[in-house]
Amino acid sequence: MFLRSVTLLKDKITDEETYPFSIPAIRGLDTLDFVNGVTFFVGENGSGKSTLLEAIAYQCGFHTAGGGKNNYYNVDSSQAALGEYIRLSWLPKITQGFFLRAESFYHFATYLDRLAKDDPSFNYRGYGGRSLHEQSHGESFLSLFLNRFGGKGIYLLDEPEAALSPARQLAFLRLIHQLVNGGNAQFIIATHSPILLGYPDAKIFSFDSDGIESVRYEDTEHYQITKGFLNRTEKFLADLFRDEEN
């Protein structure tokens, strides 16, 4: 465990009606404690989970469009609106890690291509030895995880399942398990994936209320909807389409 808690600096907030403090979960945040090697943020789109994850990345010194401490490139709308309003508590503090932002991953891959063009010796070290653009979306994500993640670090991932098939999500869970069990990694992941959320003994925080609440895996909407759909597919779909047929 490295990052122990994140605290909202409420004395710095001058207008609670403006973004991001207009988000109920963010406005209701005091201190969020991290007690597990793997923590998940869940909630509907716009609930604030990505906003908080991005702010943590900002305080870690990672590129808020995706990357580590030594990645420099420009992407529109990648500012961390909450970044200056939180404080991180560490034990011990580390500086290594990575922030994955699925929606801007294309820009990160393009940035690596520019590095390789400017410096032939770069040779995509730490990224599988070839351009991420030369791989499928899912392959490039998994290549990043397998080659860039390692050693002592904190890994902040925003919807990593976006490009991963169910089988590759399982492969990613195996990688998380290896890194966490080695005592060298901490993961904080914003996700909609019921597969990833099933990681054993993970802490799950829901952003779907006026505050951020700890929830059990079986109580997440992701688990309940997926289980209901798989167990009673025909009835589930019949109920879903009933209003359209009337």
Q: Could you please describe the fold and organization of this structure?
A:
- The protein is globular and about 60 Å long.
- It has helices at about 25, 50-60, 105-120, 135-150, 165-180, 220-230, 235-245, and strands at about 5-10, 30-35, 40, 85-90, 95-100, 155-160, 185-190, 205, 215.
- The model has no long low-confidence stretch (mean pLDDT about 90).
- The longest helix is centred in the last third of the chain and has 16 residues, at about 165-180.
- The protein has a single domain (about 5-215), classed as Rossmann fold, CATH 3.40.50.300.
- About 35% of the residues lie in helices and about 15% in strands.
- By secondary structure, the chain is of the alpha/beta class.
- It has a six-stranded mixed β-sheet, with helices on both faces.
The fraction of residues assigned to DSSP E strands is 15-25%
If classified by CATH, what would the architecture be?
3-Layer(aba) Sandwich
Tell me the number of helical segments per DSSP (H or I, 4 or more residues long).
Answer: 7
CATH class: Alpha Beta
The residue fraction in helices comes out at: 25-40%
Fold-level CATH name: Rossmann fold
- In N-to-C order, the SSE pattern is EHEEHEEHHEHEEEHH
CATH-level-4 superfamily name:
P-loop containing nucleotide triphosphate hydrolases
**How large is the radius of gyration?**
19 Å
**Major sheet, described briefly?**
6 strands, mixed
Structural class: alpha/beta
Compute the number of structural domains.
Answer: 1
Read across the widest sheet, the strand sequence of neighbours is 5-6-7-3-8-9
Mean pLDDT across the residues is 89
User: What's the total count of β strands?
Assistant: 9
List the uncertain runs.
none
Q: Looking at the structure, what is the overall shape?
A: globular
End-to-end Cα distance, whole Å, is 55 Å
